[in-house]
Please model this.
Amino acid sequence: MAQSQEEILAGLADIINEETGLEQEAVQLDKTFTEDLDIDSLSMMTIVVNAEEKFGVRIPDEQVKNLQTVRDAVDFIHGAQD
Amino acid sequence: MSGDRPRPTLRTIRGPEFSAILGIGDHRPERVVGNDEIVRYIDSTDEWIRERSGIAARRQAGPDESLVDMSVSAAQAALDAAGVAADRVGAVIVATISHDVQTPAAATLVADRIGAGHAAAYDLGAACSGFTYGIATADDLVRSGRAEHVLVIGAEKLSDYRNPYDRGTAFVFGDGAGAALVGPSTTPGISATVWGADGSGAPLISQSVGWNAARAAWFRDTAEHGLDAAGGELPPPARVNPEATDTYWPYLTMQGPSVFRWAAYQMAPVALEAIEAAGITPDDLDVFVPHQANTRIIDALVKKIGLPDRVVVARDDLADMANTSAASIPLATARLLREGRAKSGDLALLMGFGAGLTWAAQVVVLP
Model:
């Protein structure tokens, strides 16, 4: 069942918190993973794998590099759930 | 029509019921190359490299120290540890991707130099899974009666294929060799290997060009621009034009994040399958020796497999030997035994994974 974008954002924030220790409130739609949140490419893959499991979607490797901002990720997951 | 003649039944061979690793040895080149030396050629720092990979240093073979030299040294150490004479070795397998000629195989030279007489000898190309593929093969050769003892050597001189200008891989690879002698045993010493390959993942870890393409690029560019265009020296490695190095020489390439994702999350089920195939549980293990590729892969595997904290996990070799492909598992195992962190009789899960893609895992009783 498709989740709302707010639910996806909250879930993503939990996953990022678990991987990096970053506070959930810091994970906002306009933040970039690399620059703003300081998430490296390997942590990003861990987040992606955990997001796939949590949201029941498939996020291929070639798609990951297109996910620059938290909004990109939320939109992709939301679209993939439909 | 052969109907009138009795049809003979072919004679076949049978071997002992069980095999085991009887001795392990290693060879570490003397020269230590720290991250400080690596970052002279790439935009990176020691801290960045350690954080991403867990690698602090690697060894580099001397200019006159060949892959065969390293293999002979490790093989001799394994024979000595086992207390078995070289003339009782029936087959020598060198797992490698960096022997610098395509023929003859490194293994034939190694067999000759260690005094293994006319033992069968061949190289095995399964990259970072090469050693565990080799142990699987040796287990079968011994138990079939094909060979009384089999030497499995993992040896790499990856410094020859390391691109010093690629910030994603310049720090990754190292040189070294490790060897195991496999022979008959009265009790099971090597469990059923779980192995496989997936060529659809080949681009994740490969070479920048093949030999023919490298030669063609070299001739094309030097014909067009003169020798200076390529630095005035034949490759390899560092004197040529950094912008074009990867077209003149088949450097190892790797899509780091994708490899991380594959190894960290798809290899844990392989490990669990190998543990189940051995008829044990993760709680029964004493030691885990994964291929030494990246500390964050190892961390993820330990977590996903659910290894108890008391299980000794090989990590030190990654820190100061870096990724030595087929050599990493026997190198790390030899070290754990030498330092007393693992002991004879311990149950160790060995797991190789890498280019191909290939993977192989088995549980062994340490010698």
